[in-house]
């Protein structure tokens, strides 16, 4: 039985199902299309994914090519089994209910351990970085739509754009509230919270304390 496809395997197999490509062309196409923001890839990761897909019978080598003095490059294509595997894999990812664990929420959960100035500095750096990503992504979407690419091909980028817009706005709100004192900082949770939690354990989660 073919093992479950990883995110990298899905994007690589999708490109090889479009047309025959060598692994470095796959990587270049991922970067050109902006898909490198979807999965963490580098040329080595792409080559590894192609090797695994070949072992699983989802892609096959169809020839080699040489460009100048560079080493020969093997070209691959999706097999019939690979073509058949894409649909179920993409459907599974669309309906996926597994929790996604990210680093940022861990930082937020433990931010009260830090001084307010340290938290504000870190969040400000994140805000500026995400705002720059937001501007770049918005420009890229506008560019490809203006060139005639149908909206259905940029739904992933559109979702990311909405999430970035909301996160930047949320970061602005938190930074403002930290600056003007609306968001009180310092000290442990109030004793009244612990008292209330002991009388309503079913309605209050385990955090904090």
Automatic annotation (TrEMBL):
It holds the Pfam family PadR. InterPro entries: Metal_resp_DNA-bind_regulator, Tscrpt_reg_PadR_N, WH-like_DNA-bd_sf, WH_DNA-bd_sf. Residues 12-86 form the Transcription regulator PadR N-terminal domain. It comes from the Bacteria. PANTHER family: PADR-FAMILY TRANSCRIPTIONAL REGULATOR, TRANSCRIPTIONAL REGULATOR PADR FAMILY PROTEIN. This is PadR family transcriptional regulator.
């Amino acid at each position: 039985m073919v093992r479950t496809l990883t995110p990298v395997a899905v994007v690589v197999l999708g490109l090889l199902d479009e047309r025959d490509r060598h692994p470095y062309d796959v990587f270049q196409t991922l970067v050109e299309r902006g898909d490198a923001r979807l999965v963490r890839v580098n040329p080595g990761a792409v080559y590894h994914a192609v090797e695994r897909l070949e072992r699983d019978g989802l892609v096959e080598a169809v020839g080699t090519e040489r460009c100048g003095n560079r080493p020969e490059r093997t070209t691959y294509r999706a097999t019939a089994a690979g073509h058949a595997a894409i649909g179920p894999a993409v459907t599974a990812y669309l309906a996926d209910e597994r929790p996604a664990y990210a680093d940022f929420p861990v930082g937020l959960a433990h931010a009260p351990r830090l001084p307010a100035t340290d938290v504000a500095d870190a969040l400000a750096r994140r805000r500026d970085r995400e705002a720059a990503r937001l501007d770049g992504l918005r420009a890229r979407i506008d560019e490809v739509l203006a060139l005639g690419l149908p909206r259905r091909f940029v739904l992933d980028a559109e979702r990311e754009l909405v999430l970035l817009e909301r996160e930047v706005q949320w970061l602005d709100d938190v930074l403002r509230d930290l600056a003007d004192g609306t968001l009180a900082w310092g000290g442990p949770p109030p004793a009244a919270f612990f008292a209330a939690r002991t009388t309503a354990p079913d309605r209050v989660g385990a955090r904090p304390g």
